[in-house]
Task: structure prediction
Amino acid sequence: MSHRLQVLIPEELDRQLRKAAQRNRVSKGEWVRRALRQSVVAARMGRTSDPVARLASLNAPTADIEQMLSEIESGRS
Result:
């Protein structure tokens, strides 16, 4: 069974949503359903939409900025 959810959004967001749906050749409703589904799955898996938090969660190697720049430059030779 389906349930109705009414959400008020500003005109600019509606315009962006309409364009995104058109690019994907789906209705606005379908585009929103897909986005919500992806967001719920990501939240369930503990993923965050915060890009800084996502980068930090990678536990990638880091170094002093000068050392990193030096390594990058030496790799260009």
